[in-house]
Amino acid sequence: MSEPAHQPVPAPASLYGMPVIGAGETVSSIGAALTGAVLAPVGRRWRLAVAGALALVLVWAGLRPAVPAALAAAGAGWWIGLASGCLLISGLLLLADVAWRCGIARLAQTAALLGAGLAALHPAPLHGVSLTALFAAAGGLWAAALLPDLAVLRDRLAAGPERRRARVYRALSAVWRGSAVQWLAWERACRGFALLGILAAVAALIDLALAAALHSDRHDTLLPVALLVEAVLSGAGLIATLAVALRRSLGLDGLVTGRHLDILGRLILAFGLAALYCHVTEIVTALLYGDAAERARLIRRLLGDEAPAFWTLMLAGLLPTQLFWIASLRRGAVLGLIGALAAAGLGADHVLAARAGANGADLAAALSAAIGSAGLFVLGLLLLFRLVPPVSIAETRRLALGQNPHAAQRSPEPGPAEGPHPSSGQGARPGLMAVFASEAELAEAVRGLSGPDTPSRLDAFGPAPMPEAAAALHARGHSLNRVALSGAFLGATVFLVARAAGLGEAVPEGLAGMTALASPASWPTPWSNSWSNSWAIASPLSWALAAVPALAAAVLGGTLGLGIALGAALARARGNVSPALAPAAALAGRFLLTIEPADAPFRPAALVRRLETLPEAAGRPLALYGPSAPERPL
Amino acid sequence: MSAEEKGDAARKAAGAKSASGYFLDPARRPAAALAVGLGCLLLAFHHAGLPRLAPSYLAAWTCLLALPAGALPVVIMIERADAWRPQPETALLETLRGLLVLMPVAAILALPIPLAAALLYPGPESAGPDGPLILRAGAPPFLAARLALYFALWTGLALLFARRGGEPWAKAGRIDDGRAVLGLGLHTVVGTLAAYDLVMAAGTDPGPRFHASAFGLLVLAAWSSLALAAAILLAPPDVGPARRRHDRLTPLAVLLLVWAGLHAVQFLMLGAAADPAAAAWYRLRSSFYGRVLALAAAAVVALAAALTLRPGENRTRLVAALAVGVHLAELFWFVTPAFRGGFRLNLTDLLALAGVTGLAMGLAPAIRRLVPGLAVTPAWPGRERVKTRAAEGDTRRKSVVRPPEAF
Question: Which terminus of chain B has fewer CB atoms gathered within 10 Å of its CB, N or C?
Fold first, then answer.
């Protein structure tokens, strides 16, 4: 008999070697490190950084009026690119369910939110709806992803002296209890916000390109693609810089690992190549397929008054990214430096897109203003990361539970002696609470208890998403998608109606004329010779140009709808943990199963016996609390 | 003699007595396909003449080229994605690799294009002092040289990435990031230039020439979408429990969305530019049938996006079949209106497509024998021919990766 020709497929993880989370990281160490980063007293370095950032903000405030409008618009485009890139990276990683994203996702989401906010402070060249949608989508994703972490901070502060701060976190995370159904709704909502964020980013970048095409002579059809690619590249550069700084300043090497830096370096390298492709293709097309006028424009860009911006883009934004073919450069401080250089250098393409030919003084003022606005960005980061963890606690705990065998807390804690759960406002009820070290054990217990003869209502709580427990509980998520889709439809409809009304005023026959124009039967002969005039704002063909802001309006409506749906779903699924059974800190980070009376007579002693007979590590709890429970570790 | 061999012998005996049996015999199938293909092309030549056949042949040939050239980046991407997944894709990936064998076939069938260059592309005399520089290099020898370079590079890439799949993972290793990026980059550059040279430049009218830098990317997206849709139709379903089966609709929907987005972006940017050459190009393609095609394409993209919420094997195949139809029509929409004053599929187009298909089916087995590196057997459970060959000790074909469930 011949030897088998095929060998088992090796595990993909072995191809890479480096872990995506420190080997010693556990549920409790992650919570302690990240809440400690927020709650620790501010240090001297933080104060100095804030003072430096404030000085830059003052420079920006002083120079803003001196910057020409075209260059200010280029500044807005730069921030929109950074925000869109961060949002695209964060959203795509989330939708692709990439497990290691937790190390950089919060950085990307926070940078996206601040970038969108900063863009709004400039005279943005794109439609207001597009920018609003970008800001709303970035804010929605940031806030939704943050919710479980706020509850961790709330629980950590519950017994501490900082009562005012505790009240803030309690108010912000009032609905969050960490039940299996809440985790289900949270995951779905985050995916929904991620999709909306991607759409908002794409719409904003296409709108930016169309604005450049309408208001300047840059009509290259690759411009939207180039802006998209450069947005991701600049976003990756910015995230890499922030990740390197975070590892250095907070010592979070176990959570933002060398593997994260390596991946970011590869991302920068790949998108640097893609951006080079766009620019080289643009040059080749103009050179070989363009006419004499187009060749003259190309020479102006390479050697004329646009040359400084073009060569800044090449030498700072794109070519240094190719250094990451050298693996060692992807893992150190060089990554942060090149990332920052790329993120800054790519702003030059927005100067090119805005056709902002300017003198040296104007350029110097614009550059100083850009540095000042970067100061405002840094100030925002410093302040926000004093309020929220810089790395997602919930997602990092999930990653640790999946990667590290000893990440779960196995030792039982003493009984509930630290007072009621801070977010519960309900009276004491009879019931049982079982503590488990892992979600799998909890799910086994649920399966062991479930059945037609179980006269109780089961609910599960945990420090990370619990899909297996939710499945064992037969928990069904709330329909968030329908509300989000309804919001999107409503948003697009309102925008189009408003636009029709606006165009109706410009047409002599008013809205009746608009209706006739919108009918395809009334359109002129397809692509008539007067096509060059057909894109005027009052033309029916301008409906085509309304498509992108309409998409943005749909995203805006969808974001609002999804936010409302998430709030309602979380409020409905708060779960029932009796205050007498739910200590705050003592059981934080553990998987809890609550058993409460249903309609039939409740016999806790029988349930306790049933749980005690389950096999160890396959359903038997670490500890039980409540009437008839042993009130001690099993 | 086993029962199977007896059955084969009986089928051969029966086949010798009837025409259909004769041509359906697997051993004679390539020759039959070659004959049918040549017959269709001769019929088209007789029906329409060379000047009208040439654009149809070019469009049909781009449909053939789309399969290997479109499969190449998808193979690289799926294999890279597999590195992150616990269960690698098997049947679909092998089918896509099987399409790579068509690259040398497309190269051979490209030979008539430089010969008919005068009928398909503007000559150097139409360049003028201010015209595009590329027209000065538009003579047939230069076009043939560029085509030879493109196909040399493409065939090299096809050999590299097909060979990877022909060996067990543990032995061959996976494509690393660097090789994947270089492969994708080279393919993108070659594909862009080929799309410019062969598709965008088609048309002999003097005057302003349409050009758009996103056109190369647009054609590459269309090719990849067509290749993936065709592979979905050809590949058998994944084996294993339903929850572990791969979702094939989402990648196809993403490719379709990228392709539709590039079309929309090109249209909007050229509209904003109010470029007369672009206006003329779109005017030619916006006849009644052109609009029908645009609406049908939009409907297919919307359907693909909507069905990702409820994916299923039959739904995926439905979307793939619709996508293949739309893309084939689109490749004719790109080329033929420049020669006819509008878009409309006619008998010559259908005969040219049938002819090119027949020639490709006839030449592919010969190429597999001549270029063993491309002879990746698109094998999967249930394909008895593969098992039979393996039992006979056929070592010409490479072994294939079995699904993990088989171990």
Answer: N
Nearest residue of A to residue B211, measured between CA atoms:
A289
| CB of B199 less than 8 A from some CB of A | no
Mean residue pLDDT of chain A comes to 82
pLDDT of residue B407: 32
Query: In chain B, positions 284-313, which contact chain A (CB-CB < 8 Å)?
Result: 286-287, 291, 309
- CA A159 – CA A175 distance, rounded (Å): 19
pLDDT at site B294: 94
What are A155's two structure tokens?
Answer: 């629980």
A-chain CB neighbours of B399 within 8 Å are 5-6
Amino acid, single-letter form, for residue A36: G
Residue B170 belongs to a domain: yes
Of A5, A225, A548, the CB nearest to B214: A225
Mean pLDDT, chain B cut into blocks of 10 residues (407 residues total) = 59 57 72 94 94 95 96 88 60 86 94 91 71 71 91 92 54 61 92 93 76 94 97 81 68 95 90 78 88 95 92 90 97 93 92 96 88 59 44 44 37
Rounded Cα gap, residues A385 and A393, in angstroms: 13
Is B272's CB within 8 Å of A210's CB?
yes
Task: Tell which B residues from 313 to 372 touch A, by Cβ distance under 8 Å.
Answer: none
Q: Do B213 and A270 touch (CB under 8 A)?
A: no
The count of structural domains within chain B is: 1
Q: Is the pLDDT of residue A137 over 70?
A: yes
The range of the structural domain enclosing residue B81 comes to: 34-239+349-406
Backbone angles phi, psi at B343, to 5 degrees: -105, 125
Q: How far, in Å, CA of B303 to CA of B280, rounded?
A: 31
Contact B272 A219 (CB under 8 A): yes
Query: How are beta strands A456-461 and A432-436 bridged, if at all?
Result: unpaired
| Helices and strands in chain A: count of H runs, count of E runs | 21, 4
Judge whether A415 and A631 are in contact, CB under 8 Å: yes
- C-beta atoms surrounding A540 within 10 Å: 18
Domain presence at residue B205: yes
Residue B285 tokens read as: 């393609």
Out of A5, A288, A291, name the one closest to residue B130 (CB): A291
Q: What is the pLDDT of residues A45-61, one digit of tens each?
A: 999 999 999 999 998 88
Residue B286 lies in a domain: no
- DSSP-assigned beta bridge partners for residue A433: A594, A625
> Average pLDDT in the A144-164 region?
87
Q: Which residues of A touch B280 (CB under 8 A)?
A: 527
